[in-house]
């Protein structure tokens, strides 16, 4: 994809993005500091590591290295050595003991041996440390080559050692101008073994500078510091059973058409992020985890555009918009893979509904629900406003004619509002349900992709979206997609929210879906919230009588809304919320549908009224008074 100068102001090209080329080495706290009064803790019990014939510090180190290595959980032979544990095994004192044992160092005086230890652990230039090199040599029984390699200028900065391609000369050192004859002379088998260990000791360290976003550039052989990986915390079948589903691959990742997401546990010694970036994590659920999203697209501009969206909404400071923690790319011969890392939620909105099924868990949540849907609407509005800023940077102002207006409207959508893309976070050790749980909008990918389709002139009916929550304009011939398409989708989610609140989990997860199932314009049974009247095609498949087409809300959906209005737990709040959904959010005609800013105002009024008067949401209400006029 061609990148213009204005495009390059965004995403990866933003001045606040820090590109990390050294796997985080320069940001990792120095393991050894000469003046430190508290050296890295040593492992004191070495008895289980003693070998019968070699009762030395070298055998202790080798044994302890085997104990700490972490096998990469997705299979294969990859592993990494946790950085913080390495420092407790290969301490300065032990390095000196190793030097004193080496045959190659016998000719050195005691002072020279200490000087060699210092050059390994405390060089004047911290980048010239060699203790990781020593780890690799010790583990592979090659410690006697230490002096030769030091003499050739090999340091930790030269690691990891690249593998030779078949029938090709050894690749150059990572340090420009360096050549290492000893390493170049190694055979393929030895070099591959040493290379594997060199990647193991250089597993990335993820962090970021205040006010900056960190993006890491990694290689195909880099081993991510992942201890465990598993599927997303919730994967309800009913909500996706009647549309093209997301699927799980063999590693438990959730796979969609544009990306796959897996939940990962990183080694704690390999990251350091501000708590404000991470959200809350309930430790009762185990060690902190992250959501790792891999894009299927290998196009850098696709990745950069999505990153730009995430960075801009992050700047808004909303608790209800997802924050990207770090990004990285893995460069491979077949193309580059792009990744986003996010805080891991307790689950999505479906899981929240599922875990709060009892009436006693639902009905007291009215005040909380009013606050959350209001904040989600504000988050959506912030996202739309961010797109305005984004468009100005790219020179795509939408007041210069119908075509560009449509392009801007399409570009300014979230594009995939659904319960699966609303995450549930939980504050640890908080007993107030109105403060403990909060909801967050995530996955801006489809909104970003929609701009691509608008620029290429593709039929809007082919634009990616989740079928269940799509707005009527997706199916209308000549229908125009806009930001209020997001409002319709959000209205569907809000109706499901009230279904859970008034009727319970089984109703939202099963009954309501089955209740609204009917054939769509293509003859498929779908659970959308609308239908198209007078949709006709001729014998050649061409749509005819386009002007007679009309979108309406499915009568069964209206029946369901009326059922909720008769629920024994209805209140003035639920009745007014249902009215807002039915008459303004699920309005079939986009021009008559409520805008995001108007929706924020209406939901704010409902939330404020709930806050001021508990009777508004607690007391039974027979019906709303008729409107005047």
From TrEMBL:
<feature type="domain" description="Protein kinase">
    <location>
        <begin position="247"/>
        <end position="606"/>
    </location>
</feature>
<dbReference type="InterPro" id="IPR011009">
    <property type="entry name" value="Kinase-like_dom_sf"/>
</dbReference>
<protein>
    <submittedName>
        <fullName>Kinase-like protein</fullName>
    </submittedName>
</protein>
<keyword id="KW-0808">Transferase</keyword>
<dbReference type="Pfam" id="PF00069">
    <property type="entry name" value="Pkinase"/>
</dbReference>
<feature type="region of interest" description="Disordered">
    <location>
        <begin position="232"/>
        <end position="251"/>
    </location>
</feature>
<dbReference type="InterPro" id="IPR000719">
    <property type="entry name" value="Prot_kinase_dom"/>
</dbReference>
<dbReference type="GO" id="GO:0005524">
    <property type="term" value="F:ATP binding"/>
</dbReference>
<keyword id="KW-0418">Kinase</keyword>
<dbReference type="GO" id="GO:0004674">
    <property type="term" value="F:protein serine/threonine kinase activity"/>
</dbReference>
């Amino acid at each position: 994809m061609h990148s213009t100068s204005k495009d390059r102001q965004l995403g990866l090209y933003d001045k606040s993005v820090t590109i990390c080329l050294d796997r985080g080495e320069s940001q990792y706290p120095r393991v050894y500091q000469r003046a430190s009064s508290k050296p890295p803790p040593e492992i004191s019990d070495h008895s289980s590591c003693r070998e019968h014939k070699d009762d030395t510090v070298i055998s202790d180190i080798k044994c302890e290295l085997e104990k700490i290595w972490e096998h990469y959980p997705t299979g294969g032979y990859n592993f990494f050595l946790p950085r913080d544990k390495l420092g407790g095994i290969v301490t300065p004192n032990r390095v000196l003991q190793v030097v004193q044992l080496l045959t190659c160092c016998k000719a050195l005086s005691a002072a020279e041996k200490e000087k060699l230890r210092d050059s390994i652990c405390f060089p004047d230039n911290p980048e010239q440390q060699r203790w990781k090199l020593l780890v690799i040599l010790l583990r592979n029984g090659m410690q006697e080559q230490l002096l030769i390699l030091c003499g050739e200028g090999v340091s930790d900065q030269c690691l990891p050692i690249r593998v030779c391609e078949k029938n090709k000369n050894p690749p150059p050192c990572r340090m420009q101008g360096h050549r290492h004859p000893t390493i170049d002379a190694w055979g393929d088998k030895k070099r591959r073994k040493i290379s594997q260990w060199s990647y193991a000791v250089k597993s990335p360290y993820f962090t970021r500078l205040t006010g900056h976003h960190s993006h890491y550039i990694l290689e195909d052989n880099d081993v991510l510091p992942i201890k465990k990986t598993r599927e997303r915390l919730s994967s309800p079948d009913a909500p996706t059973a009647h549309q093209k589903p997301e699927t799980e691959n063999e590693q438990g990742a959730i796979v969609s058409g544009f990306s796959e997401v897996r939940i990962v546990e990183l080694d704690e010694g390999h990251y350091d992020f501000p708590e404000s970036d991470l959200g809350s994590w309930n430790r009762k659920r185990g060690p902190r985890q992250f959501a790792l999203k891999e894009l299927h697209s290998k196009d850098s501009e696709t990745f950069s555009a999505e990153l730009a969206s995430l960075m801009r909404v992050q700047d808004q400071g909303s608790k209800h918009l997802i924050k990207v923690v770090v990004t990285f790319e893995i460069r491979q011969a077949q193309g580059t893979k792009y990744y986003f890392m996010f805080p891991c939620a307790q689950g999505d909105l479906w899981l929240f509904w599922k875990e709060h099924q009892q009436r006693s868990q639902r009905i007291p949540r009215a005040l909380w629900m009013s606050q959350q849907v209001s904040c989600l609407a504000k988050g959506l509005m912030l996202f739309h406003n961010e797109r305005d800023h984004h468009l100005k940077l790219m020179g795509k102002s939408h007041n210069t004619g119908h075509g560009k207006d449509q392009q801007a409207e399409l570009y300014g959508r979230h594009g995939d509002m659904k319960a699966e893309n609303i995450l549930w976070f939980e504050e640890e050790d908080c007993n107030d349900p109105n403060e403990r749980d909060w909801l967050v909008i995530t996955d801006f990918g489809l909104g970003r992709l929609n701009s691509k389709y608008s620029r290429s002139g593709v039929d809007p009916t082919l634009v990616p979206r989740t079928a269940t929550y799509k707005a009527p304009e997706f199916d209308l011939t000549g229908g125009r997609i806009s930001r209020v398409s997001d409002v319709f989708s959000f209205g569907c989610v809000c109706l499901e929210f009230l279904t859970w609140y008034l009727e319970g989990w089984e109703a939202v997860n099963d009954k309501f879906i089955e209740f609204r199932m009917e054939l769509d314009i293509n003859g498929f049974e779908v659970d959308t919230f609308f239908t198209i009247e007078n949709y006709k095609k001729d014998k050649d498949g061409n749509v005819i009588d386009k002007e007679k087409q009309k979108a309406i809300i499915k009568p069964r959906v209206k029946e369901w809304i009326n059922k909720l209005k008769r629920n024994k737990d209805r209140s003035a709040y639920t009745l007014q919320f249902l009215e807002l959904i039915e008459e303004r959010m699920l309005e079939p005609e986009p021009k008559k549908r409520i805008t995001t800013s108007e929706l924020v105002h209406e939901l704010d009024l409902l939330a404020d009224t709930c806050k001021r008067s508990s009777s508004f949401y607690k007391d039974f209400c027979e019906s709303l008074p008729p409107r005047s006029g």
